[in-house]
Amino acid sequence: MDVTPRTAPDLDLRPREAAPPRARRWWAFLVVLAVLGGLAFVASKALSDASLFFYNADEAVAKKSELGTDRFRMQGTVESGTVVDTGDGVDFVVTFNGVEVPVSHRGDPPQLFRPGMPVVLEGRWDPTGQFFSSDRMLVKHDETYEENHRDRITAAEEGGQEPPRSTTATAAP
Q1: Tell me, what's the pLDDT at 162?
Q2: Distance in angstroms (rounded) separating the CA atoms of residues 6 and 29
Q3: Which residues contact 74 (CB under 8 A, 6 or more apart)?
Q4: pLDDT tens-digit profile of 15-64?
Q5: Which of 49, 73, 158, 161 could form a disulfide with 54 if both were Cys (CB 3.0 to 4.6 A apart)?
Q6: Torsion sign, CA atoms 104, 107, 113, 119
Q7: What is the largest CA-CA distance in the chain?
Q8: How far apart are CA 24 and CA 36, in angstroms?
Q9: CA nearest 56: which of 10, 101, 11?
């Protein structure tokens, strides 16, 4: 019996040189660059939205040329007799320190909106600079609900149980 090892004549056991993985490096670099660019965009958008400027109506009028059509918040008091429903919103005039600003608000105003009430409007000057174009309105909530509906607040504090109402039936004559 022959015990000599056999070797395959075509088998080359010498180490080969590997091709450099340059193509994979470029793809990885581009993917990382795209992700970092996306994160930078999201961060800049979040910071610009968080730094929305707030002006009183008189300040907004004084800085109208600086503001141009940039978005900002404006505060003022709704003048009585100026509120007009437009179907897709409401037009009115706000005033602050004697300066009047016409406002065209698109969308439903809050339920507490009424003349004589302070409002904060979010929007921009229209391209002509004639009025403030608003798409978001904030009004101050007051505590009159608590004063007028103390029984409901007490019931809510007691677990939502309303006090029983009198159900005395009256007989018809």
Answers
A1: 45
A2: 49
A3: 54, 55, 56, 57, 60, 94, 101, 120, 121, 123, 132, 134
A4: 777 666 665 677 788 888 999 999 998 887 777 655 567 788 898 899 88
A5: 73
A6: negative
A7: 130
A8: 18
A9: 101
